[in-house]
Predict the structure.
Amino acid sequence: MIPTLRALLQVADLPAFAGPTVAGVAVLYGAGVAAISLWAARRTRTAADFFVAGRGIGLLALTLATLASNISGFAFIGGPGLVYARGLGAVWIILPAGITGALGAWVLAKRLRLLAEVRPMLTIPDALGARYGSRLVQGLAGVAILVAIVGYMAANLRALGVVTDAVFGIGLGPAIWLGTLVMIAYSASGGSLSGVYVDVLQGTIMAAASTLVFAYVLDAGGGMAGLSRTILAADPAFLDPWGHLPPLTAASFFFVFGLGVLGQPHVLHKFYMLKDPLRLKWFPLLGTAALVLTVLLFVGVGVAVKALVVTGELEPLANPDFATPLFLLRRTPLLLAAIVLSGVLAAIMSTVNAFLSVGAGAITHDIPVALGRPLGDELRWARWATVLIAAAAAAAAQLPGALVSFLGIFGWGLFASTLVPALAIGLNWAGGTRAGAVASIATGLVATLALETAGFLGWIALPAGVSVAGLTLVLSLLVYLGVSAATSASARLDPDVRAVLES
Amino acid sequence: MLGLVGAAAAYAAAFLPGGAPAWAGPLLGVASIVIMTATALLAAARPGGGTLAAMLAVGGLALAFAMASVWTIPPTDPANPDLDLGLPRAAAHLLYGIGLLPALIVPLVYAWTFDRATLSEADLARVRAAAAAHRGEAAEPPQRP
């Protein structure tokens, strides 16, 4: 089977880790999260505190928070498994990491942060509403985000349940609800303020754990050269640039993940939170360094496990997702394995928290604003919306794995196809029009839902190498540019928004 | 637009009988870099952004060339592998050249050009002044004709 975005979701079972050391570290980690949440909950007094951390965070917090939200559990479990199964072709998913930090900063970080200087920005659809002077654009973006989030959240809560079950051995169903309760507790109480500072802890754990594991990777195979020679002797295609994947699939990963980062609202809305916009100067440097360290495990473990299987030191894996757990248990000290497992929990939880915040924003802010009925007490409603979304997603996460995986695939691609054109191009090109934004968001939403559903039901089968996310991203970009060109006479900007676009 | 057409052509080619032709992969890889570079150039298009725009254009061109050349490097001989920094040449080119090298250079370019080409105190003051003026206008009652 050719991997698609489906492979990015962690819905398969993992081997059990239950044991005092692993469970103890996970409990310690949970206590750290709880302490930060309590601290943040006491400081969350307004909707701005809840959604954008009171717009008062520093550069380091921004860097680690964006890292933690950007990286899900896939980077630790599914990704190394994909490398083990498909070779270097899987690495094209993270290949743009060296560019995306600066690209995001040039294209969006400055614009979004400056918009927060001129208008009260709480959500990413707020930026679209201001840019196009349109409640329709804001509402449509809110709906697209909500559709994407519930499915993506279900997949992530399922992943949280899978890992929690592997650590505590309590069964998948109860583990999903336990994980959800923890998420509700810290997300509903402290919102983004809680989320950001928990992200600082989580991002630190993720980067440190990945770096340490990579040292063991090199040790396991006699350095990169030793690993390469072992693998080349048995499976030379594994180390081809696209491994065992069709080259178009590998290039498609690069396209979708390189450009798609410009449409991920749960990451982008963190730019509103930075206290001093001039501090963005160092964001790509710190962010890229942290990201590169964090993805070392992604590449290293998959390659190392392949070499260990070739030499017979590990038996061939029944499931590629076992690559990281087995490597940790067999080749690293138990304490490090426990910390990495906490890192996996951290990665999933930080992503879920960011989704909850963005989803609550869509329900309590963007859609009511679009309908001309803004809510009175947004903080209270946002807390309830957080509980509602988490509960709905947890219920969906109990569905059969294939269905959860199907729900989850929408997320990344839907964010990219609906938001990249209107947001990333629109905030840098005064020629983009309201009609172009509406048409591109609608195209992304409808095309992604239709193609993914038709594929899931077996009505269509896309050729090898073609992903729905890539296809719909191209389509919505073309629609945005085409419709904007056709309606260019209607292009207009408020003076303050124009100042942001021209800065 | 050129990059988008390239990406669309690469995907469209996969629907041809016999599946994606050999050029579809490199075309999509290069088109991705063209689109990313063009988007960054759009962001850099402002007074004082000339140096940055030139650096982005040169960097994008180099990266697109590096991407295209991945497909031209012959596979290594498994019996007597020729390794660069521990990896077969094509894989090293991919991981170190396209993955790691930009990670070392691009953030430094961003920081180095930030004050002149991205955001300065003066830019910030201008935006804040525009916001204040807009708020002032918005606060005034609407004029009746």
In short: Residues 1-11 of chain A have pLDDT under 50 and may be disordered. The radius of gyration of chain A is 22 Å. Chain A touches chain B through 79 residues (CB under 8 Å). Residues 369 and 391 of chain A are 24 Å apart (CA to CA).
